[in-house]
Amino acid sequence: MGHKIHPKNFRLGIIENWQSRWLNKRFFRFFLEEDLEIREFLTKQYHRLGLGEVEIERSGDNLSIIMNSAKPGLIIGRGGTGLTDLKVKLEKIVGKLRAQNHYGSGKWELKLSVSEIKKPENDAQIVAQNIAADLEKRMPFRRAMKTALEKVSNQKDVLGVKINLAGRLNGSEMARREWLAKGKVPLQTLRANVDYAQEEALTTYGKIGIKVWIYKGEIFENRAKI
Fold this sequence. Notes:
GMP Synthetase, Chain A, domain 3, 2 domains, four-stranded mixed sheet, globular, alpha/beta, 6 helices
C-alpha cells in the first residue's frame, strides 16, 4: 500500500515555508480557528478568480494577511475600494471570534495586502482552477488536460508537469482516473521545487477531483525562513 504525503508539507523547513507564520502556545487553538475561517471566507469570496496561496503572519495579537493573486485588480477594485471593503469584512470575522471566545488583549490590528502572481501558468493552484472552470463549462476532459499541459510545459522555468483527474469523466457511469504528464516530476527528492495543488470541479454528473504537479528545478540552498 502506498503512503502519500503532500509535496509541500514534505519539504517544509527545507525549501518550503509555512503559509501561517506564527506561534502562540496560549491562544493556539483560537488563532488556528481564525486562520481557517479567513481562508474559507477568501476561498468562497474569490472562487475561480485567480486566488493563489493566502499567507498569514502574526505579531502578538496583530494580524497580517498576504493574498497572492493572478488578478489583483479584481481584489483591489477601483481606487482600492474593494480592498477596503474586504478588510472590513475580515475584521468582522476575526472580531466576532474574539468576542465569542474572549481571548487576546482586546487591542489588535489587521493588515491586508495583495501580491501579484507574475506567471500564473507556473502556479499549480491557478492551473487547477482553470481546468476546473473548463470542466464546469462542459469542455471534454482530455482537451482541458492537454490545453493546460501545453501552456505549463511551454514555460521556460518548468521542467515537468503532471495533471490527474478523477471522477465521472465526460459523464461516464463508472468513475475512473486519467492523467497526463510531460517531463519529470521527482516527488521523492527534497531539493526538488514541486508546486502542487488540488481543486474540485462541480459538474452535472458530480465532482471531479483535480491534482496538478509542476516541477521547477532543484534548490540547493535553504529558502525557508524558519
